[in-house]
Amino acid sequence: MMRYAKFTEWIYAIIAILAGYETFSKWNEDRNSAYLFLFFTVVSIGMFFFRRHFRKKFEKRNQP
To answer: How far apart (Å, rounded) are the C-alpha atoms in residues 31 and 64?
Structure first.
């Protein structure tokens, strides 16, 4: 179960990096699309830290 939690945590980090790249590459061409990717970047970063916080909290609770 913990391996799955760590894996999904890093999936959000990868999505944030890719969306951030798309945001900067589309910023001057299509501003509306860039804002959408900026939103995905912010949400993915938030989910990364949210998942990390609760995974660590769960690990502490299960330690003897």
So the answer is: 52
The number of distinct structural domains making up the chain is: 1
Give the C-alpha separation, 16 to 22, whole Å.
Answer: 10
Burial 14-44 (b: 16+ CB within 10 A, else e): ebbeebbebbeebeeeeeeebeebbebbeeb
Q: Residue for token digits 């939690």?
A: 5
Sign of the four-CA dihedral 8, 9, 12, 13: negative
Domain that residue 25 falls in: 2-62
Please tell me the chain's helix, strand, coil percentages from 3-state DSSP, rounded to the nearest 5: 90, 0, 10
For 38-62, the pLDDT digits (tens) are 999 999 999 999 999 998 998 888 7
